[in-house]
User: What shape does this take?
Amino acid sequence: MPDARKTAIGGQALIEGIVMRGKHVAAMGIRLPNGEIEVTEKQLTPLRDKYKIAGVPVIRGVVNFIESIVFGYNCLMESAEKSGIEDTESESKLDKWLTENFSDKVMPVIGVISAVLGVALSLGLFMYLPALMNDGLDKWLFKGGIAAHNLQPLVEGIIKIIIFVIYMWAVAQMKDIKRVFMYHGAEHKTIFCYENNEELTVENVRKQIRFHPRCGTSFMFVMMIVSIFIATILVLIFPGLRASRIVWTFAKLLVLPLVMGIGYEFIKYAGKHDNLFTKICSAPGLWMQRISTVEPDDDMIEVGIEAFKYVLEHDENLDIK
Assistant: This one.
């Protein structure tokens, strides 16, 4: 087999599709209801090209994360529309009534409310709940031993990881989400096929592994591990932070950008290097991809190939030196 190569192209699974993202060009491939594949070009204008500070290590991780969330959400909504999932025949009576009577005024408000509720759920599930459970364990089971030995961040981090794994497993049981995870697998396999210097064919892509170190799932796991270390430092420097659950949650929110920045730098490093250090640190995230990725069918692989080829042909300087 030819020597492996690295590429800056990354991707995201969508509803019945995949978006492949280069440095300045992205391509969204969608399997339309009629069976055809539609590839739509998306121009990218990263903030790092406009402002030098957006390209500074650690800071670029926060900027990239926000840009990716906004871009990915827009692509996800567009894929839902194009794939036919929002077909009026499958809408509930309430959905039809809202669309017919309040589409121009209320629907954007509903979108904002949904986003706020989503953020609130995330904060409650992965920040407030672990802290609450940690306090409960310390009070009723360990009799204050966790606090006495400054082990709160470690125990809280372990609880957070357990909640994350259970959450991902539960979501993966949903039929529609499983198809998204299958496209996720197709995205990884397509990128691996290119990085292994093999021709982008369904047969070659199918035989690739589906666990990639630059995956967003790995990024989330790295963030949780980094947050344990940073939270431990906070507790040692400011012991009083843990006195109030609200104050402790707010403190973790304040250092979240630092956690994201460090996590991004590791994922970027792991994408370029294959050594013992990256293998050990990437192992938990790669294991989690056994849940967040599923073996795709050939139709999904075709979508990934078409989107990847488009970016490859229309973007420049994509190989990582």
